[in-house]
């Protein structure tokens, strides 16, 4: 019987292994323009399609504010570091997401309250892919 274990999801940003995830959904990824084909219809009704070759995407990580990798990510953000980034689901060995060049694209919002807050890092990814291995 297939079993998913969130502890088997591995994220590498360059040489750094990411840890300290928030509860709930902690990783999302998507193409900036998810349409694989663009449809076009001319004035005379002739139809065609164009393959979308745009391969830019984003990966969003939700981390606990106490995550030990925040120091590394904040330094990479300030330096404008560009490194490979890969997300792999080792539970089923079938999904790989990421690309050869990724960088931190946002300035994470920080807040404080009665309980530990979560911090969201958004990574821009060139030549993004999200598919089976």
Summarize the structure.
The protein is mostly beta strands and 133 residues long.
Q: Average the pLDDT over all residues and give the rounded result.
A: 92
The count of β-strands is 10
**Residue fraction in strands:** over 45%
CATH topology: Pnp Oxidase, Chain A
Per CATH, the class reads Mainly Beta
Number of domains: 1
N/C terminus separation: 20 Å
Written as H for each helix and E for each strand, in order along the chain, the element string is EEEEEEHEEEE
Strand-pairing-aware structural class: mainly beta
Morphology: globular
Number of helices: 1
Question: Which residues sit in consecutive blocks of at least 5 with pLDDT less than 50?
Answer: none
* Rg over alpha carbons: 18 Å
Q: Major β-sheet, in short?
A: 8 strands, antiparallel
CATH architecture heading: Roll
Instruction: Specify the helix fraction band.
Output: under 10%
Oligomeric organization of the protein chains:
single chain
């Amino acid at each position: 019987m297939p079993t998913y274990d969130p502890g088997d999801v591995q994220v590498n940003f360059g040489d750094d292994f990411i840890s300290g995830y928030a509860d709930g959904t902690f990783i999302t990824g998507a193409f900036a323009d998810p349409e694989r084909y663009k449809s076009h219809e001319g004035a005379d009704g002739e139809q065609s399609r164009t393959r979308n070759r745009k391969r830019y995407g984003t990966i969003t990580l939700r981390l606990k504010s106490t995550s030990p990798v925040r120091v590394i990510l904040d330094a990479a953000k300030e330096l404008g570091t560009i490194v490979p980034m890969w997300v792999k689901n080792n539970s089923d060995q079938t999904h790989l997401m990421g690309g050869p060049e990724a960088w931190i694209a946002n300035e994470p919002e920080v807040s404080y309250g009665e309980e530990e807050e979560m911090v969201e890092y958004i990574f821009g990814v060139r030549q993004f892919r999200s598919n089976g291995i």
